[in-house]
Amino acid sequence: QVQLVESGGGLVQPGGSLRLSCAVPASIFSGNSMSWYRQPPGKERELVASIYRIGYTNYADSVKVRFTISKDNAKNTVYLQMNSLKPEDTAVYYCTVGQHYWGQGTQVTVSS
What is the average pLDDT across 95-103? Predict the structure, then answer.
């Protein structure tokens, strides 16, 4: 069974930073696009950022400049660096490989 494991969520004050990590099995890491989604309370899941095999990235307008997606090929890990966090960034964050394999989610709460 393929399992993605997210970590790094938590409670942070507005303006703060967090870095999410997603450990991906080596068997599916290479050659696939990887993304972070989030689901705010009472809302639908939405795309936050994606990174493609050649390193190209794209972001939702709401997180551009503030968030950075990256990957470490040696560690089979995808990251989401989140800076200047806002209360509206509060959500459960999920990583996915090719929108086929999903992690269990990690809670991010931005509140004073």
Answer: 93
